[in-house]
Each structure stands twice: as structure tokens, then as C-alpha cells.
Amino acid sequence: MVKRNRATIITAIEGKYIELLDGLDERGRRRWAAVEARALGCSGNTAVALATGLADRTIRTGRKELDDPALPAGHRQRRSGGDRKPHAITQPGLQDALDQLIEPTARGSPTNPLRWTIKNTSRLAQALRNQGYAVSATSVRRMLGAMNYSLQGNRKRREGVQHPDRDGQFRHIAERVKARKRRDEPALPVDAKNKGVLGNLKNSEKTDRPQGDPKKVKTHDFPDPQLGKAVPYGVYDIHGNEAGVSVGIGHDTAEFAVGAIRRW
């Protein structure tokens, strides 16, 4: 292979591999890679491996199969005995060790910090290797799937002890709102909205400008001590269904809330 054409050749092989990938099984991929490597000559294995991501050993296995093209018995992808042995056979205690790491409340000492802090497969694999097992994060992920584990987020379902008068303040507010309505007086909820940093900062809006001449803004969105923040305060009249917003550049304080009501 001519050295100056190496990158072009690798790109061409990569393109062909992508087009054929969906239609090839495991045996077909390594045999196709072997054909390409053989056509390129002495450095063919390296070029095909770079283009396809296949291991050099896989390509060499494909070359051997080209010399002995008979399919394995039962149309197997690999010859009998060529599959990797499962961890349950090669390392019988591995699954129990993994189970102890992820079920601290059922097995072992709950004071072991490892059992409480490990959350991802990489750290689980490292902990198992520290115990003398040969295992990768990918293998741990497959084992967890076989054990009916899956990635799940937190869900808010537990509440603290409920006070007997937990809803008392809300019932009081509701009664006061009804009383003001009977007297034809306003009931005003007041709260601060999302604060915004002021200045020449990046935002998600777009404007029409000459091509290649975007508006230049600050690299970081740090608050400017001279400009401060915009603090919107909303005042809503429940009965009149009317609202107003006051915007200040000070702080979210009770004084500002009172000022917003006065402006309303």
C-alpha cells in the first residue's frame, strides 16, 4: 500500500463497511474484513482494523476461515468451543459478590461505606476486581440486567411526620380570601419570579444579522456588580383576575414586596 494513499484507502474501506454492516452477521463481518485486508497486502490488517474498529485478531481469524471456508456445525458464528465461557462457570462466586455489593441491607455489614457509595458499573467492577475477580464494567452491566436491575431515578414518595395542624395555615388563608371577597376587597398573592442577570450576556434568542457577524457577548454569565440582577415581583388580584409585575435591581426582600403592592 502506498504510504501517501493510506488515509484515502482507510476512508474508502470505512465507507464500504458502514454500507454493508447491517447486512452482515459476525462471521460475515470478519470474512469481509479478511478479504479487504488480503487485497491490501502486508499492511492490510492494520488498515482494515483502523477503518472498521475490528480487532486485529478478528481479522486474522477471518483469514483463517477463508482458507478453510466450511461453515461450523449448525451454521454457528464460531466453531464449537470458541465462545467465551460465562462468568457463572469461570468465576462461580462472582454473582454472589456483586449481589452483596448492591444489597447492603440484606447482606453484610451496613457500616461498609463501599456498599453505600457505589452507584455505577465502573466502581462496582473495580470493587469486584479488588476481591480478586476478573470482570469489566460491561460484564457487570450484563449481570445486573440478568438479575432484573435497571437504571432508575429517584421518585418523591416519602413524607415526614405530618403535624395535626399541617393544613391549618392553608385553611386560614382560604377563609381570609373568601372573607375579603365577601367584602369586595382584593386578595393579593405576591411572589418573586425568576431573577435575571443584567448585562451583555448570551441568550437563546436569534436576530437577523449579516452572515459571519454574530453579536458578541460576554464569555461568562457572572453577575455584574455594577448592574446587579433584575428581580421581577408579581402581584395578582384573585377576584379581579388582574396582575402586575414590578422589576427591581435590588434584592428579594419584604420591603420590595411591599413596594410592589404599592405600585399595584
Descriptive terms for the model:
single chain; 264 residues; alpha+beta; four-stranded antiparallel β-sheet; 4 strands
Number of strands: 4
Percent of residues in helical segments? 40-55%
Q: How much strand?
A: 5-15%
Estimated radius of gyration:
34 Å
Class derived from helix and strand content: alpha+beta
**Low-pLDDT residue spans:** 105-118
* Form type: elongated
Secondary-structure element series = HHHHHHHHHHEEEEH
Largest sheet: 4 strands, antiparallel
Termini gap: 81 Å
Tally of individual helices: 11
The overall pLDDT, averaged over residues, is 79
Number of domains: 3
Descriptive notes:
Helix 2 (26-40) crosses helix 3. This protein has helices at residues 6-20, 26-40, 44-52, 56-67, 87-90, 94-102, 113-117, 121-130, 137-146, 168-182, 254-263; strands at 190-192, 196-197, 229-237, 242-248. The chain folds into three domains: 3-75; 87-146; 181-200 and 218-264, no CATH class. Strands 1, 2, 3 and 4 form a four-stranded antiparallel β-sheet that branches. It is of the alpha+beta class. It is elongated, with a radius of gyration of 34 Å. The protein is 43% helix and 8% strand.
Q: Could you provide a short overview of the structure?
A:
The chain is built from 11 helices and 4 strands. By secondary structure, the protein is of the alpha+beta class.
